[in-house]
Design goal:
This protein has 1503 residues and is an alpha+beta fold. Among the domains are: 2-53 and 708-789 and 1000-1165, Nucleotidyltransferase, domain 5 (2-Layer Sandwich); 68-129 and 178-195 and 327-387, no CATH class; 209-278, no CATH class; 830-989, no CATH class; 1177-1211, no CATH class; 1226-1337, no CATH class; 1346-1502, no CATH class. It contains 53 helices and 54 strands. It has a 6-stranded mixed sheet with strand order 32-25-1-2-3-37, sandwiched between helices. It has a 5-stranded antiparallel sheet with strand order 44-43-42-46-45, with no helix packed on it. Strands 52-51-50-53-54 form a 5-stranded antiparallel sheet. Helix 2 packs antiparallel against helix 6 (179-191), helix 5 crosses helix 8 (302-312) and helix 22 crosses helix 25 (688-696). The radius of gyration is 38 Å and the shape is globular.
């Protein structure tokens, strides 16, 4: 018998099954099966399924990015400190706090002074620049005298000291300022220096979209009402009208509103505006553009703009309101003006000698850079070298995939052996924007193009017109030339091209189609890319002055470089390279100018038309430029083919193929495929696969064959696997985990079967391990659709699933209504899938009927109901009126009335029988009379009507063939796929076979890796013959035929029965006497999207088992690749015969007793979960340094000092793998608190106050007890209750600050936008020294990773504690030096009792019975029975002394907990503290912790 491994791979799951099977003799057995789950949050899964790639380290990477920004800011500050210190600009108190000897430019430990405040002897901080402050006060007293008055304490009110910086920035543009003030300005620019804009980001895709602030002029009563509320129109001061009506006027009258306004001009000339609320995340480009426009129009620098605005409106909020994110050039220009003016006014402060000292200080060892800037002066040093220096963006070239044909070799020193080794790696793939790739893609596309006449059917197939339309090579090159003028091509372009050439008849235009994708419903084809780059270049060059022939200009090759042997490259490629590679806007402009100068074209005109050329997408092909340059000459035809472009090696191979000369490098299969090519000129117009064989001796076969003969070969691959090499973290995780699971299965069962092994040394484990010989004879694999599809396809599928769920819900609602309709005959069952399909087909048939009537219900109303997933009762009644016009039977032409639809008179009928073509979709189904369906048997619709057309079947007259063709062509003209099936005499091309030959990257990768395990000698194909891919369509059919769906229902039924008991109802199922089984169901409110398969993790193991039992014969038989006469030989092996000896549609069982064995195996399966409790790990930090680890200087080839990357050797470097605390940082607040708790306060936005309880937590007594209560009095409802949502809305806060003096009982008060609130809880200090000792934080959610269990001998009971993450980290750092076996994850606390074990999320525990506690030997963990398996639980989370669990097999809850009814499958947190049986034993009190491997084998239990 064959030893077969079946795998079912999903986004976060691996189902596996190991079987032995002899299918021909119907013998076999299940050796083992299992489910391996990789826990992943539902939002991450949902994002992946909808096409969004998500990394589990994404959040951590984001925080690291922010830290790097702070680090670079500090590095610039340190460099500024060093320069300003040499210049003598720093105030004494500030300079004294900086270390200029060891840690150059850094603040001394525990000090970080502010440059504008100095601490006096009493400890108070005083503002340093009072002279300038007083000058500013004079300005404000002139413009805003009301701000200044004498307070009751006799002191005059002040304006903020910090506004002085804006005054100084304005003053420095024209007047001399003190050197200390200039230092403050310079350091201020380091903090806020603007957004660095990459090329392309300035291009607004939607030019009609604007960020606009509009003030409401008036709110007009329309006289209309909705739900008792009056509707109002809003008119803005500029005359525009809001595009929606409002019901509440309070937030609108006299207000200024911010919108993203989209303006469109309709064909009538009318201007239409739509208003969208501002989303700062999505609309930041529009907001940025508006802010920059305002600053430009003011003709001021940013500092002037802010200061003058404050002078005019002192209450103006600056950050985030007046000045939002703007481009760096604004700040850079202002700083350049300031520093230039100050150097001009105070030259004595910026002497040549000081400049030389500064660059010597900054670059003591970098002589080259010192020389390059020695004459540039302080303006350049501050602006370009320090403040606005932008490091080059890191190359992302390593992320580009490699070519399958071309490789490069180089020498590299092995870090472990310190010896030089030859490394071979693939050449990087070419960008899809490259002109060469686009030509290659176009020839490939053309070779696959076919044009058909849909109306001319020959031998049951549409007539292929391609050979008639493209008879000569000139015809092909003409079509190629036409396509090079288009960015994308659609079907209509090709048909129109041939019509203009008089090759097709315009009158019959709709009769023609191409072989590429066309959506019959939308009447549009998919757009295929052509020569986007060339077309974009041409359109712009046509506008450039002085270029007459753009095609000649682009095609002409010129020398790149000054040397004589420099390569000749076309201008098109040179221009492409500039646009592709240069990201910086200034560098890009400079490159364009140089290109124009080199090629003697008008520089200004050229730059004007290319400066806003959008950057190319980072999208790459499958081949390298080098490979395409070799393949393309063989693919061209006509005037584009020239033998001189064929490389020498390929030319020699071609000659040997023609002459028949022996060459061991040319395989026999290549000679066989090129046997018809006898002349050198024959080697043109070759399809890609043939060109690949000619050039590289292979096409889909892999270059270097890998065979994993030993189990340790998988471990070697995993050790060498480069993290992030797949660029999709979810796929990468499932690939590597799959290989680990397969390796574990191999080693575990090979040991049991005494398979020979060898001992190999594992360098990481530092010991010898066993490596077993070949074990698996076949591997069968099914990939979940979300795994094998690319992001855009996953997004489409996700949307389609959502639409189908809505449709299914609507259909159920209608069936529910029909069930209660006395006029509808038969038994209507809303939850019957077959009846749901029946109604879907019925409504589809009526909707697509060309004679459909809308006399009782309008078409618009019908479409509205069809789109509604939750129609009202009135909607359904209206819809029924429309449905009652009836569905026309395709075979007889008789109408089928809605009232009889659910009787035994009618059936759903497969147009092409399932026994011949396994397509169970609605496009292969119609509704017809049952007698006709029975008589049709195993024939296609067309065969049946061709043979029996015109006959009467039990009173039903069949259409004649001509009548049938006419009827369906008219009735189903909008459903081309169904029409094709109805008119097909032969079996259509197989959709299953296309799935089997899946060429998508992820699928190819996984199949390729698994093929290495079972590949036989001399196999060169990427997918081994012993690796059988299986599709979900096949496994669904086999599960049904093998009775496994019924067995699955039996396995999960106890959960539904339990819910019936809990809810005291039969809403979750009932005993159905007709099927003699418990019929599962769920209430209407949770039926949408419910899937009984998905509620249990073990369904992955079940799917894997079916995959393992699916033979290649099954896939051959079910795929339409096989013509019918070839299927007969497989029927005896696969199909069951009935009593008459006729073949049924049902497949034979793999072996006798198979369903019963499956159920037993599943019930005894323990699910395995991947854990992630790693808290810290040692990191290897590297940094650039002139000295090596030994302290010696690094020198370059020229003997000069050179920076090299070196490892950090000083101190401990630990990486925390979990979020240590929440982002909010609080300060200590001094009030009385309960024991073990502290009070902290934090600033909170006023808009966050939602109730009286939150109001009471405000620390400022005046705000809490006077201002806000008075403000709330203006926002009382009819019951005199405060409306917090309105009072603290954006408009409410605006009113608060406008009337703040009145609300504060006549006393002045600063505007309030944020308030300090306190809270009492368990928080810990961020650090122990400096400012960190004053900062308090709360543990982050989900960081309670360890729940400690102790045994109290004295009280004879267990004690429990959840260990905070900060304590875990501190302990693990202390014990990190110990051997792994001596470490404990937490610091045990003897006062709690004797330490037993810790539980972490995804740990499994066993809950023993009283008998098992007394006698543990009753539990054999290697052979748990069904009852014992049901007592295995998974730890979910812990808090305080409580620990929560869920049974190991539960994947999703059938019913979530409802707080109102207090009912749910589990407890209030949708988790358990007690067992699921009705004894309700507290799990933590008696559980045993299990040690479990990837396969679900339990090796140890801690009791």
């Amino acid at each position: 018998m064959k030893r077969i491994l079946g795998l079912d791979l999903g986004t976060n799951s691996i189902g596996w099954a190991l079987i032995e099977q002899d299918f021909d003799n119907k013998e076999g057995s299940i050796l083992r099966l299992g489910s391996r789950i990789i826990p992943m949050s539902q939002d991450v899964l949902g994002k992946f399924d909808s096409g969004l790639s998500h990394s589990q380290t994404e959040e951590r990477t984001g925080y690291r990015g922010v830290r790097r920004l702070y680090q670079r800011d500090n590095l610039r500050r340190e460099r500024l400190h060093r320069v300003l210190n040499i210049l003598g600009f720093l105030p004494k108190h500030y300079a004294d706090s900086i270390d200029f000897i060891r840690n150059l430019g850094q603040f001394k430990p525990g000090t970080e002074e502010k440059i504008n405040y100095r601490q006096d002897e009493s400890g108070k901080y005083k503002f340093l620049f009072m002279r300038s402050f007083n000058e500013m006060v004079s300005d404000f007293k002139q413009k805003q005298p009301q701000l200044f008055y004498v307070k009751p304490n006799g002191q005059e009110t002040k304006i903020p000291y910090d506004w002085t910086i804006y005054y100084l920035r304005k003053k420095a543009l024209s007047q001399r300022i003190d050197k200390e003030e200039l230092a403050w300005i310079i350091l201020n620019f380091n903090q806020k220096r603007g957004y660095y804009q990459l090329r392309g980001e300035e291009i607004d895709e939607d030019k009609d979209k604007q960020f606009i602030q509009l003030k409401v002029k008036e709110v007009l009563d329309t006289g209309e009402k909705v739900k008792g509320n009056t509707l109002y129109n809003v008119i803005f001061e500029n005359g525009w009208e809001y595009d929606r009506q409002i019901t509440k006027v309070e937030g609108w009258e006299g207000r200024t509103k911010e919108f993203i306004v989209t303006t469109k001009t309709l064909t009538s000339g009318e201007v239409k505006r739509t208003y969208k609320a501002v989303d700062s995340e999505k609309d930041w480009i529009a907001i940025k553009a508006k802010t920059e426009q305002d600053i430009d129009q003011s003709d001021k620098t940013i500092g002037e703009y802010i200061y003058d605005t404050l002078l005019h409106t002192p209450t103006q909020k600056i950050r985030g309101k007046l000045v939002k994110t703007i481009e760096r050039k604004f700040y850079k220009e202002e700083f350049r003006k300031i520093i230039f003016r100050q150097i001009e006014l105070q030259p004595e402060l910026f002497t040549k000698e000081l400049y030389e000292k500064c660059i010597e200080e900054l670059y003591p060892r970098n002589e080259a850079h010192r020389t390059s800037i020695q004459d540039k002066g302080f303006e350049h040093l501050f602006t370009e070298d320090i403040l606005f220096y932008q490091r080059p963006l890191r190359s992302q070239k390593s992320n580009i995939a490699g070519c399958q044909f071309e490789f490069r070799e180089y020498k590299k020193k092995n870090e472990k052996t310190r010896k030089e080794e030859i490394v071979k790696e693939p050449v990087k793939a070419i960008s899809k924007s490259h002109p060469l790739f686009q030509e290659f893609r176009l020839w490939q596309w053309l070779q696959n193009l076919r044009i058909y006449n849909k109306e001319t059917i020959i031998d049951g197939k549409e007539k292929d017109l391609t050979a008639d339309l493209l008879q000569t090579e000139d015809d092909w090159t003409d079509l190629f030339d036409f396509l090079t003028t288009k960015q994308t091509v659609e079907q209509k372009h090709i048909i129109d091209y041939f019509i203009k050439k008089k090759s097709l008849n315009k009158a019959n235009k709709d009769n023609y189609r191409w072989n590429y994708v066309y959506d019959e419903e939308k009447k549009e084809s998919k757009k295929y890319p052509c020569c986007e780059t060339r077309v974009q270049f041409t359109s712009r060059l046509n506008k450039v002055e002085g270029i007459e022939n753009t095609n000649y200009f682009l095609s002409e090759k010129t020398r790149v470089g000054k040397k004589e042997n420099s390569p000749l490259i076309s201008r098109e490629e040179q221009l492409w390279h500039i646009i592709y590679s240069v990201k910086d806007l200034n560098e890009y402009k400079s490159a364009l100018q140089k290109f124009a100068q080199k090629h003697s074209i008008n520089e200004d005109s050229f730059v004007e038309h290319f400066i806003k050329f959008p950057p190319f997408d980072s999208d790459y092909g499958s081949y390298s430029k080098k490979a395409i340059e070799k393949l393309l000459p063989l693919m061209r035809v006509g005037k584009y083919w020239d033998e001189v472009f064929i490389d020498d090696n390929t030319s020699n191979r071609i000659q040997k193929l023609i002459d028949g000369e022996y060459d061991e490098k040319i395989k026999n299969r290549v000679r066989e495929k090129t046997i018809s090519l006898s002349e050198r000129s024959d080697f043109r117009g070759l399809p890609l696969w043939l060109a690949s064989y000619v050039v590289y001796d292979r096409h889909s076969e892999i270059g270097e064959i890998q065979q994993w003969e030993m189990s340790y070969d998988i471990q070697n691959y995993l050790y060498e696997f480069k993290q992030h090499s797949l660029r999709n973290p979810i796929v990468e995780q499932i690939v590597t985990e799959t290989l680990r699971v397969v390796k574990d299965i191999w080693e575990y069962y090979a040991e049991k079967d005494n398979v020979p092994y060898e001992m190999v040394y594992d360098e990481r484990k530092k010991k010898k391990v066993r490596s077993y010989h070949k074990f698996f004879e076949e591997i069968h694999v099914e990939l979940g659709r979300e795994m094998k599809n690319p992001a855009d396809k996953r997004k489409q599928i996700s949307q389609r699933i959502s639409e189908n769920e809505n449709t299914n819900y609507r259909i159920k609602e209608i069936l529910q209504e029909l069930m209660n309709d006395p006029e509808v005959q038969g038994e209507v069952r809303p939850y019957s899938p077959s009846q749901q399909d029946l109604l879907k087909l019925y409504e589809e048939g009526i909707y697509q009927n060309p004679d459909v009537k809308y006399d009782k219900v309008s078409e618009d109303e019908v479409q509205k109901i069809r789109r509604n997933n939750n129609p009202s009762k009135n909607d359904i009644i209206r819809y029924k009126l429309w449905l009652e016009q009836g569905y026309i039977s395709p075979y007889t032409g008789k109408p089928i009335q809605l009232s009889k639809l659910f009787t035994r008179e009618y059936d759903i009928e497969h147009i092409i029988p399932q026994s011949r073509y396994f397509d169970n979709s609605l496009s292969n189904k119609i509704i017809c009379e049952r007698d006709v369906n029975d008589d049709k048997g195993n024939k296609t619709a067309y065969e049946y009507l061709k043979e029996k057309g015109g006959e009467s079947i039990n009173g039903h007259r069949l259409f004649k063939l001509e009548e049938f063709e006419s009827h369906v062509s008219k009735y189903f003209k909008n459903n081309k796929l169904k029409l094709k099936n109805l008119l097909s005499e032969d079996i259509p091309e197989g959709f299953i076979n296309r799935q089997m030959n899946d060429s998508r990257y992820i699928s190819k990768l996984i199949k390729g890796l698994l093929s290495n395990i079972v590949r036989e000698q001399n196999e060169r194909e990427a997918t081994s013959k012993k690796l059988i891919p299986v599709t979900g369509t096949i496994t669904s059919k086999l599960k049904q035929d093998w009775g496994l769906n019924d067995k699955w229902n039996e396995i999960i039924a106890p959960r539904f029965k339990r819910l019936n008991v809990l809810t005291k109802s039969d809403k979750f199922g009932f005993w159905d006497k007709e099927i003699n089984a418990f019929r599962i169901q769920v209430p209407d409110e949770i039926s949408k999207g419910f899937n009984k398969k998905r509620i249990d993790h073990r369904h992955h193991a079940l799917d894997a088992l079916v995959v393992a039992c699916t033979t290649r014969n099954h896939t051959h038989y079910l795929s339409a690749l096989n013509a019918e006469n070839k299927n007969y030989g497989l029927r005896d092996k696969l199909l069951i015969k009935n009593e008459k000896g006729d073949y049924t549609k049902t497949f034979q069982m793999p072996w006798v007793g198979f369903p019963v064995e499956v159920r037993k195996a599943l019930e005894e399966t323990v699910v395995s979960f991947k854990q992630n409790t790693r808290v810290i790990n040692k990191t290897i930090n590297k940094f650039w340094s002139y000295t090596g680890e030994n302290g010696n200087f690094n020198k370059g080839k020229d003997g000069k000092p050179k920076k090299k990357l070196r490892k950090q050797t000083k101190g401990d470097s630990w990486s925390i793998r979990k979020s240590l605390h929440k982002e909010t940082v609080s300060g200590l607040y001094n009030i009385d608190t309960p024991k073990g708790k502290i009070a902290t306060s934090v600033r909170t936005a006023l808009s966050e106050i939602k109730n009286e309880k939150q109001l009471a937590k405000i620390t400022d007594q005046r705000i809490r007890e006077v201002i806000l209560p008075n403000h709330l009095k203006n926002y009382l409802d009819e019951k005199r209750k405060a409306q917090y949502d309105l009072a603290f809305s954006e408009e409410g806060i605006e009113d608060l600050n406008k009337n703040i003096v009145q609300l504060n009982e006549g006393k002045n008060h600063q505007p309030i936008r944020k308030v300090k609130q306190f809270e009492i809880g368990s928080k810990f200090q961020v650090g122990e020294t400096g400012n960190n000792a004053k900062k308090y934080v709360e543990a982050a959610k989900g960081t309670n990773l360890f729940f400690a269990v102790y045994w109290d001998k004295e009280k004879q009971k267990r004690n429990f504690e959840t260990i905070p993450l900060n304590e875990v980290i501190a302990h693990q750092k202390q014990v990190a030096h110990l051997p792994k076996e001596e470490r404990t994850p937490i610091q045990p606390k003897p006062e709690k009792g004797e330490f037993m074990f810790t539980l972490s999320p995804n740990d499994l525990v066993y809950v023993p019975t009283d008998e098992e506690i007394e006698n543990p030997s009753l539990v054999d963990f290697e052979n748990l029975n069904k009852e014992q398996t049901n007592r295995v639980y998974k730890m979910e989370k812990a808090s305080g002394n409580e620990c929560y669990f869920i049974r190991h097999d539960i994947a999703q809850l059938i019913k979530q907990y409802d707080a109102k009814t207090k009912l749910g499958e589990l407890s209030s947190q949708n988790k358990l503290e007690t067992t699921m049986d009705f004894d309700k034993i507290r799990i933590k009190e008696i559980c045993w912790k299990l040690k479990i491997d990837r396969l679900g084998n339990i090796s140890k239990a801690k009791k």
